[in-house]
Amino acid sequence: MRYNSSGFYEEKLSLLGIGTDLLPKNEKGEVEAEKGSALLKTAFESGVTFFFVPFSESESTKRFLGESFSRKSRDEYFLCGSIDAENFAFGEEIETFFEKQLALLKCGYFDYFVIENINRKNYSEFVKNKIYDTFSKFKEYGKIKHLGFSFKDSVEFGKEILEKYCWDFAKFDLNFCNWEFSCGDDFYHVLRKKGVPFVASDPFMGGKILDPPKDVIEILRCGDPFFSMEEWALRWFFDKKGLLCIITSPENAEKTEKYANIISSSKTLNSSRKHYLKLAAQKLSEEKCEGTEI
User: Fold this and answer.
1) How many CA atoms lie within 13 A of 209 on its CB side?
2) Bridge-based pairing state of the strands 198-201 and 243-248
3) Counting Cβ atoms within 10 Å, is residue 56 exposed (0-12), middle (13-18) or buried (19+)?
4) What is the structure's pLDDT at 292?
5) 7 pLDDT band (50/70/90 cuts)?
6) Number of other CB atoms surrounding residue 141 within 10 Å
7) CA–CA distance, 21 with 110 (Å, rounded to integer)
8) Which of 33, 50, 116, 179 has the fewest C-beta atoms lying within 10 Å of its C-beta?
9) Which residues contact 268 (CB under 8 A, 6 or more apart)?
10) Please, are residues 201 and 257 in contact by the beta-carbon 8 Å criterion?
């Protein structure tokens, strides 16, 4: 497994992070214990140390995760929690919500915590309810080690939020396609200039990168006929400075192992491969703009 080499924090973060939103669940929405345990076991055995638990996870899922994590020493994993500024009625209930998450996950504290989806529409409520101050206090009390944010707006707005508050990291959607054609590189350079590390989410562009049109596949085969789409997507990150980890959401133990093997590999993207990846990103962008389902 590759581990974080950003130089920002001393924690041994795996470059591969596991998001828990696609844990195998039954018809009732409850985690299938055997399959879910197999996924987490594979992750730990593969050297994964970073786990992201979305705000939207059900109490039963968080309870399952809490039971699973409690079997490990607390210094064997790093837990990232979140709250969604877009879908949460801020107020006095924040502390209750926060404490409940800690109790369900049996973690004692969050290594990383993200205030998600801040935007101009909800920003007045964010300021009015002193959300940043509230979570900063959790950090002072030792219940959060590193406080971060994600935004759902223009790069300029993201820059404003970054400069107005003191953040330990940012979380934002990044992949080889939006880097080239949707301003992903713009915010990356804002972060680099500010000296703030980041967690990358959505490396597969909502799954579209994993199942692209045939002409995109043909382009990439010219770059390297042996690379899978997952390999193209994940290895693209290897030279990104300031990167803490890449959050993926595998559905089973097999995919978890596959992603871990890719991240652990020494294979990188040379200049020739990067050229073909850029051509593929352009084609993907064109398909998206033309309204073609990709």
Assistant:
1) 25
2) parallel
3) exposed
4) 35
5) low
6) 9
7) 18
8) 33
9) 235, 238, 239
10) no
Three-state DSSP state, 227: coil
Place of tokens 């899978």: 228
What is the pLDDT, as a whole number, of residue 290? Answer: 43
What is the token pair recorded at 282? 């352009």
Give the residue, 112 or 184, on which the prediction is more confident. Answer: 112
Q: Beta 169-173 vs 144-151: how paired, if at all?
A: parallel
pTM attached to this predicted model: 0.90
18-28 per-residue burial string, b: 16 or more CB within 10 A, e: under 16 = bbbeebbbeee
Cβ atoms < 10 Å from Cβ of 211: 11
**How confident is the prediction for the chain on average, in pLDDT?**
89
**Of 64, 10, 72, nearest to 36 (Cα)?**
64
List C-alpha distances in Å: 214 to 115, 218, 283, 284.
38, 6, 11, 11
The mean pLDDT value for 36-64 works out to: 94
Domains of the chain: 16-207+229-266 (3.20.20.100)
